[in-house]
Structure formats: C-alpha cells, structure tokens
Write a structure and sequence with these properties.
The complex is a heterotrimer. By secondary structure, chain A is of the alpha/beta class. Chain A has 13 helices and 17 strands. Chain A has helices spanning 22-32, 47-58, 72-84, 95-110, 135-139, 153-168, 197-204, 243-253, 257-272, 298-312, 330-337, 357-367, 389-405; strands at residues 16-21, 37-40, 65-68, 89-93, 116-121, 146-149, 176-181, 189-194, 212-213, 222-223, 281-284, 291-295, 317-322, 324-326, 342-347, 374-380, 412-415. Helix content of chain B is 37%, strand content 22%. The longest helix of chain B has 17 residues, at 165-181. Chain B has one domain: Pyruvate-ferredoxin oxidoreductase, PFOR, domain III (Pyruvate-ferredoxin Oxidoreductase, domain 3, 3-Layer(aba) Sandwich), CATH 3.40.920.10. A 7-stranded mixed sheet of chain B has the order 2-3-1-4-5-6-7, covered by helices on one side. Chain B is built from 6 helices and 7 strands, in the order βαββββαβααααβ. Chain B starts with a strand and ends with a strand. Chain C has a single domain, classed as Alpha-Beta Plaits (2-Layer Sandwich). In chain C, 11% of the residues lie in helices and 18% in strands. In chain C, the strands form 2 sheets. Chain C has a two-stranded antiparallel ribbon with strand order 1-4. A two-stranded antiparallel sheet of chain C has the order 2-3. Classes of the chains: A alpha/beta, B alpha/beta, C alpha+beta. Chain A binds chain B through residues 1, 17, 19, 21, 131, 151-152, 181, 183-185, 187-191, 298-299, 301-302, 304-305, 384, 386-390, and chain B through 20, 23-24, 26-28, 31-37, 39, 58-64, 66. β8 of chain A pairs antiparallel with β2 (32-37) of chain B, so a sheet runs across the interface.
C-alpha cells in the first residue's frame, strides 16, 4: 500500500475504519456499488459474502434484487439475463460452484456483459477440500474474464469497487473475477478503510450506464441491452460466417484492459490514497535483484515479508506481485524480470502433465527477451497448505546456492509437500 | 513492531471472538491488526487455535503464527508443553488455571528462557459473572494484566461493538475482574 | 450479396445486427400450402400452429405469407376440415 504524497480527495480521517474479514469487505463494497441484481448460491469459503449481502437486502439497506437460485449454473445464468437487461450485477462463488458455472462463464464474456464476481479461491475436488488454492481461478482461465487477485482484505474491498468500473468501461465491456484467497483472506479479520457511500457512487458514476450499439434496423444508436421498446436479440446462433469475427472482437477487447486497469488504479489513488503498483503488478526490491519471486494473492504478502528480512541480511532478492492474471501482461512482466538472474514463479495450482499455468505465461513472456533469466516453478499451498515464512527463506537461500553452480534443475518443484 | 498472539481453546469457548475483539481494539488504537482461526471444520468442544497479529506497520504476512510473542490458553485441559511450542524468548503465557503451581509446571513442562507465565481464574469468574463457562473475555483481562497490548478505552469500545447492552457490560466487568485476579507465577 | 462485416465493425456481444425478417426463407420450400376457402371455417388453428408466423389474418381470411413459409405442412396436418393441401411448387 503506497502512501499518498498528494493529499487524497477523501483523506484517511474521512474514511470509515472497519475490522472485517475479506468476505464482509467484499459484501460492503457491493453494497456501496449500487448493484441492481445479485444472484448467487452459497458455497464455502464464499458463503459469508452472500449471507452478509442478503442481510443488507432483508434490512432494506439496498434496493438490489436478490435472486436465490438452486445452483451456480443458474446463478450465472440469472446474472447473464440481468446484465443483458442493463443491470449492474454481482455474484460470488468458489471451487465446485465455479466449476458448475463454467458453461455460462464463456457466455457472459462473449455477450460482453460486465458482471463482477468474487471468487473466494478454494481447491477443487477430489479429494474434497474446502481450503485455499488457485485451481478454481485457473479453471476459468480461458473463459474470457478479466481476473484480478487481491493480496489482503483492504485490496479485496478496493478491487471489488474498481472491478465494476473496469468491467463497464466502454473500451472493455467484459466480466471481471475478483479473486481473494479462501480463509487466508475470506475468513481473516483485518482493519480496512472504507469510503463513504457517496464517494463510491461518485467514483462509479452512479448506477450502471449501458453503452450504445448501432444495428441496421434502428436509425440511431440504441442501448446495448434487452428492452421491449427497442428489442435486441442476444445469444444468437452464429455459424462459420460470423462466429470467428465475434470471437476475435471479444479477444481484442482484452487489449484495452491494461490501460483501463491502470487508469482506475490511479483514479482510486487520487480518491483514497491507496494504489497497488500500477494496478497490474507491484514490485518490491526487483530493480537490482538477482532472484525475483513472482506470486499472486495473499501468498505474495507472506513472501514480501520474507524478502524484506533477506534484503536486510544483504541478499539481492525481490518480489513481483501480479495483480492481473487475465489479460496477461506479457511485455510488462518481461520488462520487470529481464535483469534478474533467476525467477521463481510461485503458484497455488498446477496443470497435471505440465507446469503451473502462471509459469507457462511467464515462460512465454520471457521468450521475447534476447537474454533471459533462469526460470523455476514452485507449486505451493495446494489444498490450503500453509506457506511458512521459514520455508520461503530456505527456498530463497537454496536458490542462491544453485545460482552459484549454475545448474537450476528440475524446473518444476514443490514447496511444502512430504516425500 | 509486530506482536503475534496464539490462542488455544475449544470450539465454542470463543477463542476466535476474543482474538477478533483484540484486533478491533488494536485497530481503534490506530494499529494494523489481523485475526483468524486455524481453519478447519468447527466442532464444539474440539481443540482449536486462533491467531492475532498487531503491528504499527501494514501486516503483509498471511501464514499461521509459528513463533508467538504471547500465548493464551482458554481451557485448563489444554495446558501442556505443546502450548509453548515456538514461543519467543521473553514471551508471555496466560493460562486459565486455578490449581497449585507445582502441578501447573508439571503439566506445562520446562518454560523457555525468559518466558513469563500468568494464571487467570477464568472459568470461576465466567461462571460467576456470565453464568456460563465461556472464558474468552476473562482471558482478555488476563492478557491485559500481562501486557497492555491495547488501550482500555479501545478494548471496552470493541467489546461494546461485539456484544450488546447488558451482555457487553457483563463482559467488561468480567475482563476487569479477571485483570485484578491474574497473577504472575513465573 | 454485400460484403460481410469484419470484427471491427460488427456490433458488440454478438447482438443481432439485422432483423430476421430480412431473411426470406420461402425459397426453402418444396411443397406449398394452398387454402380452400370453401372449406375454411376460420378457426385459426393454422395461424396458431405455424412455427414461422407465416400464416396471417388479413382482416377477412387467413392467408399464407409465401416469403417466409418453409412448407413444413403443419398447417395442413392440423386443419380440422382438411381445407389446406400441400401442392408441389410450380
């Protein structure tokens, strides 16, 4: 969390100090974001978000339509319908729930619906496990959603509000998944600063404003939304004569996302005094580092605390926290990592028969460089296995020894697993 | 400075609640705070852990606490050498305990260098004031006696945020009585 | 046929950019329904059953809109007085 040099528009004294867990923080963010429709189904560790939000609905604190559905497949379907009608829409899920949603996730992004979804990250079965890793986030990697990761409870709150602004930007019009680590963030109380309601509303420009579209059968541009007065047809059959063009259009929309994420990050900084690097990634000690750890989510914080300690001991080690996994910032990543001797990609998920998905992206990013750092992949924390600071410290010290010998093999490793 | 606290309790005794109250109080004091349980299926009566971190700086670390500065034990049946594992030199241990000292140290075993041990008659006071064996707030009083980690005004405010009306006042009374009854035994 | 639009100019989200009525589906037909108005009782069942809304009420009678009738024959099948016959296209 960078400290503001310029006084933010809403200085911290005017923000509301709350001690809440990550799920409650997300629920409050949604409450403040003038959301029209929430359709969700409870699943651990996300449940508190929906539970807390339904309390707001029951108490009349929001005018949101809350749709209790019978499954996550239905939840996302209801979100698609509501968003197509022009509503600002939110849902939340985890793990198996996200897996059940997958079919509709692809539809939401292809129909260019700016839905925001919190994913309290949890391992996928089997074996059944309710604890944190990033397998569920990786499951939706190719679904066409923007994927942002929060490191702490404050960032989960901030990112949820920002997500609506990013999703609804006319240059973007894509759904956003806000990832917060199950239990490590979802069930951990931290003190955060919340904005006054009216500042959030002003930041988002009030209720969702639907962008316009030009179709042959109306003389002027019409709102890109379902409306009986100006009927549009969504979700049409689209064969080999148009499907490809529509798909490319959707894919190309991702190109605008980094710019918008950076802008929103800066705007948030001016408003609140808080920003997260450039919105896409945040480096610590990477400028002169021989070894850089790359990580997403709460684990990045634990690693940074270790990196700080090792820096004090004189080791040239740095941490690059990645906040945006989709779209993947290939060029930025290569720029940040190019001077390191070794990069360790730390991640809580693996594609069996391959590496971790994040490692593959970083590998691709570094291919563009003439001289590349060595690259290793550490899989850690599967099924909620704790990332012990000592474990990270020993790992980094071991990597420095390996650098001396120059033989850095194998590339795929596990951190914290029993042989 | 970062202070790390480990709470040992049984499901239903409210270890996480007192961890939360302490975190809320620290936040009201202008500190950064974090509170979380050692996550698992929650079962009434089963041993469980909760953790609090309090710091002047933003808290980055999101792992469990392995080297606590302070250990609080809510249930005397949990007193064993295990609760001292990883405790820092000069750390504080606050136990819900009313028996003799010789017996206590037989249960607790060797205490690491500089570790200070306090006992609080939390069960007796909780039964007397709350009419229930919920020892979490009493142990907050014991903790305050060992070290005033948070200010009294913030602690009272946090208790009043967490509980309502008469329940809040009873718990504040309990914290103060527990503070007065806590003794340093090593 | 006009040049088909590329991805840069298509409306977003795959939303339909032309009306379905622009597509005259009548040339799919092999058999066409012909109504015998001497038998027709104006019960409107053909109008109700037509899946393409190709049978319309002109104010006095049901008539077939041959621009869109695909010749499926449902109307002939459903007609209770056998007033509709399917005849080969000339």
């Amino acid at each position: 969390m960078a400290q503001a040099l310029v006084k933010p528009k809403i200085p911290v004294e005017k923000q509301v100090l709350m001690t809440v867990n990550g799920n409650e923080a997300v629920a409050y963010a949604v409450k403040q974001s003038l959301v029209d429709v929430v359709a969700a189904y409870p699943i651990t560790p996300q449940t508190i978000i929906v539970e807390k939000f339904s309390e707001f609905v029951a108490n009349g604190e929001v005018d949101t339509v809350f749709v209790p559905v019978e499954s996550e497949h239905s939840a996302m379907s209801a979100c698609v319908g509501a968003a197509a009608a022009g509503a600002r829409v939110f849902t939340a899920t985890s793990s198996q729930g996200l897996a059940l949603m997958v079919e509709i996730l692809y539809i939401a992004s292809a129909l260019r619906l700016p839905i925001v979804m919190a994913v309290a990250n949890r391992a996928l079965s089997a074996p059944i496990n309710i604890h944190n890793d990033h397998s569920d986030a990786y499951l939706m990697r190719d679904a066409g959603w923007i994927q942002l990761f929060a490191e702490n409870v404050q960032e989960a709150y901030d990112t949820t509000i920002q997500a609506f602004k990013i999703a609804e930007d006319e240059r973007v019009l894509l759904p956003v998944a806000v990832n917060l680590d199950g239990f490590f963030l979802s069930h951990t109380l931290e003190n955060i600063y919340m904005l006054p309601d009216e500042s959030v509303r002003e930041f988002l420009g009030g209720y969702r404003r639907v962008s316009k579209v030009k179709v042959d059968y109306f003389d002027e541009e019409v709102p890109l939304a379902l409306n009986p007065a100006r009927p549009l047809s969504f979700g049409n059959l689209d064969l080999y004569d148009y499907y490809f063009e529509h798909k490319v259009q959707q894919v190309e929309a991702m190109k605008s996302v980094p710019e918008v994420v950076r802008e929103v990050n800066e705007e948030w900084f001016k408003l609140t005094g808080r920003r997260y690097g450039d919105g896409i990634m945040d480096g610590y000690g990477i400028e002169d580092a021989d070894i850089i750890l790359l990580a997403m989510g709460s684990g990045a914080g634990t690693m940074r605390s270790v990196v700080r300690k090792l820096r004090r001991e004189g080791l040239r080690v740095g941490l690059l926290k990645l906040r945006m996994f989709r779209p993947f910032p290939f060029k930025d990543i290569a720029d940040k990592l190019k001077n390191a001797k070794l990069v360790a990609v730390m991640e809580k998920g693996i594609s069996p028969g391959s590496y971790g998905p994040l490692f593959l992206e970083v590998n691709t990013a570094l291919y563009e460089l003439k001289e590349r750092p060595l690259l290793v992949n550490y899989i850690y924390g599967l099924g909620g296995r704790d990332l012990v600071p000592d474990m990270v410290e020993n790992m980094v010290k071991g990597l420095f020894k390996e650098l001396e010998t120059g033989l850095v093999q194998p590339r795929l490793r596990y951190l914290g697993v029993r042989e | 400075m970062l202070i790390e606290i480990t709470w040992y309790g049984r499901g239903g005794q409210g270890a996480w609640t007192s961890s939360n109250i302490l975190a809320m109080a620290a936040a009201l004091d202008g500190k950064f705070a974090q509170s979380f349980p050692a996550f698992g299926p929650e079962r009434s009566g089963a041993p469980m852990l909760a953790f609090t971190r309090i710091s002047d700086e933003p808290i980055e670390i999101h792992s469990m606490v392995y080297n606590p500065d302070v250990v609080v034990v809510l249930d005397d049946s949990l007193i064993s050498p295990k609760v001292l594992s990883g405790i820092k030199e000069g750390g504080l241990v606050i136990l819900n305990y009313t028996g003799g000292q010789e017996e206590l140290f037989k249960k607790l075993g060797e205490t690491p260098r500089g570790v200070k041990v306090y006992t609080t008659p939390a069960t007796r006071l909780a039964l007397e004031i709350l009419k229930a064996n919920i020892t979490n707030t009493a142990m907050l009083g014991g903790l305050m006696k060992a070290s005033e980690i948070v200010s009294w005004s913030s602690l009272e405010k946090a208790v009043r945020e967490r509980f309502r009306g008469a329940v809040a006042e009873k718990n504040i009374d309990l914290i103060k009585r527990a503070y007065d009854s806590t003794v340093k035994v090593r | 046929m006009a040049q088909q639009a590329g991805w840069r100019s298509l409306p977003k989200g795959g939303v339909a950019f032309r009306l379905s009525t622009d597509y005259k589906t009548g040339d799919w037909r092999a058999l066409k329904p012909v109504i015998d108005y001497n038998k027709c009782t104006k019960c409107m069942l053909c109008w109700l059953f037509c899946p393409d809304m190709a049978i319309v009420w002109d104010g006095e009678n049901v008539v077939v809109n041959y621009d869109y009738c695909k010749g499926c024959g449902i109307c002939a099948n459903e007609c209770p007085v056998k007033a509709i016959s399917m005849v080969p296209e000339a």
